[in-house]
Amino acid sequence: MKFFSLTLFIVIIISCAPIKVHYDYDQDLSFESYKTYQYYADMNTGLSELDTNRLLDAIDDKMALKGYSISETPDFFIDIKSKSFQEVQRSSVGIGMGGSGSNVGGGLSIGIPVGQSNTNTQIIIDFVDHSKKQLFWQAVSEFSFSPNLAPEMRERLFNDVAEKVLSNYPPEKKK
Question: Rounded to an integer, what is the distance from CA 58 to the centroid of its chain?
């Protein structure tokens, strides 16, 4: 029972981890002309094949809800890249020793890391107008990712990433 409670707590903490997304796009472009898309055939996402499929399925679902469809002759292509990195360990415990006497001083201090450093993943999603060879929309997402997540938690995570990333596509026209 204790193991189940701990596992449930960890899953809740991981699922509540924030997904940060930054957007950039061509402000002079009319996004209404883009209705169909396709993924680059030679795309190397940097994710495992299973995680890539989870992310692509999530993106396809969200794009369909927005009225976009996959096509063999698309209006634009999607390119996805990712990288993982260790977050800098910020928590540590210091142990020190020191002494002085008769005008002589000395000291020793050791920082011992507490806990584990987080693994963060950054996914960059580019929308490219292939005919113009021009990037017109980009989302950079960053989130905490544990390689030990169960398959159903990975699927949920990639659904959340796709939801957050595509929540700002197409960008609203500024008036």
Answer: 14
